[in-house]
């Protein structure tokens, strides 16, 4: 987020290119650390990768809200999530196979095989950089053809914009953090949970643990289209958070087939991303979008870092039942924030829960 701040809004193209370069360099350094058996070098590579990757997500969101407006935005965020989860699923299922092929080729396992495998996987980072270059070209071309004057308002994306954020936006931030800290850390620890509580084999536990991502790949665009057609973003977010809460309660307090709970979590996870993230564009001025999305990404990552540590401590000292209760508490905070957001939005006559028809009417009135 901090790296993005010096750029004016229209320079998100340059930001995307720079951050993609960070990702490529970070992956190469990470792979070299494996090849030379230098763990500190691998850590440094992941630091570079993370610096570029998280900032790249902010630039990507800024692109989305600058190119797509109103009823298209939810579908765009759904497609973004879908592509990300396809990548995650392919990675989880392909890298083990690729490692075995490299091992067979080199004739031995070990750090060299790992490093070479990681280097081959880095090809996807190069493809990402190529896409960033193409996108920057298309963005500048569209700006020239359509005579767009983005970034010439005299406003610069800056950290001091945070003090101007409205209460609804802060509630969106709380919803985001409270929700995602109960999903990503759970998936990170979920494999052993399914093996211990439900006596799944390692392979079966891996399969059910990845089903959230598998479901989100095809379902996210569908839900994005649905939210675009209906509007009512807050209602959809409420449904997603409530369903996730039910999923965690089923996993914690019942012995029902966990596929039911995990499928529900996958559906709700897909729905939330399509309905929640576009709401930022409805409550902040255009020149603050980069700052808003950057801040949202930053506090989400901070929450994930802190909660991952807490989750590990709870798991080591109290076990999975207490860990699930902790995740239920996190989702409950998110659910309470959704209810507060609904009430605040209604009291202020906000546009977060407008129907698609209402938004279209307002858009037409502004163009007349």
UniProtKB/TrEMBL annotation:
> What range(s) does the Major facilitator superfamily (MFS) profile domain occupy?
1-348
- Tell me one Pfam family matched here: MFS_1
Please give, as recorded in its UniProt entry, the membrane topology of this protein: Multi-pass membrane protein
Q: Could you tell me the gene encoding this protein?
A: MFSD1
Locations listed in the record: Lysosome membrane
A GO CC annotation given for this chain: lysosomal membrane
* Catalytic activity from the UniProt record: L-lysyl-L-alpha-amino acid(out) = L-lysyl-L-alpha-amino acid(in); L-histidyl-glycine(out) = L-histidyl-glycine(in); L-histidyl-L-alpha-amino acid(out) = L-histidyl-L-alpha-amino acid(in); L-alpha-aminoacyl-L-arginine(out) = L-alpha-aminoacyl-L-arginine(in)
Outline the subunit composition. Answer: Homodimer. Interacts with lysosomal protein GLMP (via lumenal domain); the interaction starts while both proteins are still in the endoplasmic reticulum and is required for stabilization of MFSD1 in lysosomes but has no direct effect on its targeting to lysosomes or transporter activity.
What's this protein's name? Lysosomal dipeptide transporter MFSD1
Keywords linked to the UniProt accession: Lysosome, Membrane, Transmembrane, Transmembrane helix, Transport
**Ranges annotated as spanning the membrane:** 12-40, 114-138, 167-187, 207-227, 234-253, 259-283, 295-315, 321-344
Q: What does this protein do?
A: Lysosomal dipeptide uniporter that selectively exports lysine, arginine or histidine-containing dipeptides with a net positive charge from the lysosome lumen into the cytosol. Could play a role in a specific type of protein O-glycosylation indirectly regulating macrophages migration and tissue invasion. Also essential for liver homeostasis.
Q: Which domain of life is it from?
A: Eukaryota
Gene Ontology molecular function terms on file: transmembrane transporter activity
Similarity comment text for this entry: Belongs to the major facilitator superfamily.
